[in-house]
Amino acid sequence: MTSGASRRSEKRVPEAAAPRRGARVQRTGLDSRVRAWSRHHRAMARDSAFRLARRPLGSLLTMVAIAIALILPCALWLVMDSAKVLDTELDESATLTVYLSASLGERQAMDIAETLRAQPGVAGARLVTAAEGMAEFQQALGLEDALSELEENPLPASIIVSPRDVSPQAVNGLGEQLDEVEGVDEVRLDLAWLERLNRLAELGQRLTLALGVLFGLGVLLIVGNTIRLAVESRRQEIEVVTLIGATHAFVRRPFLYSGAWYGLGGGMLAWAILSLGRQWLAAPVQALAQSYGATFVMPSLGLEGSAILLVSSTLLGWLGSWMAVSRHLKDIRPR
Amino acid sequence: MIAFEHVGKRYGGRFEALADINFSVQRGEMVFLTGHSGAGKSSLLRLIMRLERPSRGRILVAGYDIDRLHYSQVPFYRRQIGVVFQDHQLLSDRDVFSNVALPLEIQGVEPHEAARRVRAALDKVGLLHREKALPIELSGGEQQRIGIARAVVNKPALLLADEPTGNLDPQLSADIMRLFEDFNRIGTTVMIASHDLALIARLRHRVLRLREGRLIADEHAAREVV
């Protein structure tokens, strides 16, 4: 086919063309090939949707299976996401308590608070005088009578310091730094729970990722199996079109669209179930939060999350189908 | 159009389906391929369609060494060959029109142009009035004619047929053969595998005779070389 150009010109000469008709690979313009390609895409997208609609129950079951596989990692992700909101709230409450020497007077205590406020790592410092400390203590414990028996206030003045950086290392460093300040008796910081919380968050993230990967594989397998059956049921058609010159891409195309439809349908179902579940859980969660005196906003996927869910489920469906078709096309050889 | 040069085909390394086949078919010829079942007729056709590759030798079709075709080129090569099967291989869930349109759909022919060509092909086989029918509603002879329409709808240079009259009575068989002769008359190279010796003898075309995988005769019926 090196003389393609000259052969093409022969095409216009009837006498020369007659005996040679069709003896060459038909060369069509790029433009018309692109049009044919997009026409086939549209036709297959439509055709595969009709095929799904023709077996509504079977298609729905596949989509439900996909939805279930998608819901678990999504739900976990939502829980983790709302925990993040909680996390930042807790970070804000991560403070160091600086106890001052009992011998210091109120004036000196205020000076020290001023010094601490000027430290680079400190976001804020609130002085709690010995009297205020006593009042808080009494209120918290309800031991007013017992404590009023005491002749003098045993509590030292303290300063509540909010660090700028709440990472455990930074808080630790700041604690050591504050301990050096004159008049400071002791610095208390509860790093253990901060670290625990961080570990927990990391664990949650990894768990979400692992589950996401596992259930994503699950979706691939569900779609793959469904498509395998579809390929099997259209075996004769595949053999015939292969015999008359269909490319692999042509044969694969309707199945890829089926897979994408399954994925999209499953994604939409998952989205709907997540929304319903969110509403269903909203009341008890809200009540629970209130009993802790907290306001809690139920997490939602949001626009971005919904888009990610639908796009990734569609892609997973497409990919699952691609794997199944590619594997099974090798087995189908025209007899 | 077709040239076999010392072609051999073994299956599984032992069974020799074809051995040292040499022949060539000119453009515009009509050739019968005959022999008992198992003589290698189907294997030979499968080699031309490149469903199989030869174990030995070289096959040239329309100037291509088809064993050298890259697998991605094979579909485009097959589009130049029209194939008619004994069991016609029509798709049962499509009507006659879409069955015949299938090769054009694969080649991405514009729907308008495709419809025109499908009707022309259906008219040629005399079944234009059945375009809306499903294959199952047609008789065996009609189904085979639809199979032929599908094979010729994209005007292939080469038309292959594997026992196209295997399931038909003599009258219908003769009709089908006449159809092939019509296509041959307008320049299509035709190769038909058949064991209907009486019919072949009447038609007076070149005959390639196979026995146990070997080409035992290459005779022109017109010359009466038996």
TrEMBL record, chain A:
Gene3D superfamilies: 3.30.70.3040. Residues 96-187 form the FtsX extracellular domain. It is found in: Cell inner membrane. It is a multi-pass membrane protein. Residues 1-26 are annotated as: Disordered. The chain crosses the membrane at residues 60-80, 207-227, 255-274, 307-325. Keywords: Cell cycle, Cell division, Cell inner membrane, Cell membrane, Membrane, Transmembrane, Transmembrane helix. The keyword Protein biosynthesis does not apply. Residues 211-326 form the ABC3 transporter permease C-terminal domain. Its main location: membrane. The keyword Transmembrane applies. Pfam families: FtsX, FtsX_ECD. InterPro entries: ABC3_permease_C, FtsX, FtsX_ECD, FtsX_proteobact-type. Belongs to the ABC-4 integral membrane protein family. FtsX subfamily. Forms a membrane-associated complex with FtsE. Part of the ABC transporter FtsEX involved in cellular division. This is Cell division protein FtsX. It comes from Modicisalibacter luteus. The lineage of its organism: Bacteria, Pseudomonadati, Pseudomonadota, Gammaproteobacteria, Oceanospirillales.
UniProtKB/TrEMBL annotation, chain B:
It is a peripheral membrane protein. It is found in: Cell inner membrane; Cell membrane. The keyword GTP-binding does not apply. It holds the Pfam family ABC_tran. GO terms for molecular function: ATP binding. Its main location: membrane. PROSITE patterns: ABC_TRANSPORTER_1, ABC_TRANSPORTER_2. Residues 2-225 form the ABC transporter domain. It comes from the Bacteria. Signal peptide: none annotated. InterPro entries: AAA+_ATPase, ABC_transporter-like_ATP-bd, ABC_transporter-like_CS, ABC_transpr_LolD-like, Cell_div_FtsE, P-loop_NTPase. Keywords: ATP-binding, Cell cycle, Cell division, Cell membrane, Membrane, Nucleotide-binding. SMART domains: AAA. One of its GO terms (biological process) is cell division. NCBIfam families: FtsE. Homodimer. Forms a membrane-associated complex with FtsX. Part of the ABC transporter FtsEX involved in cellular division. Important for assembly or stability of the septal ring. Belongs to the ABC transporter superfamily. This is Cell division ATP-binding protein FtsE. It comes from Modicisalibacter luteus. The gene is ftsE.
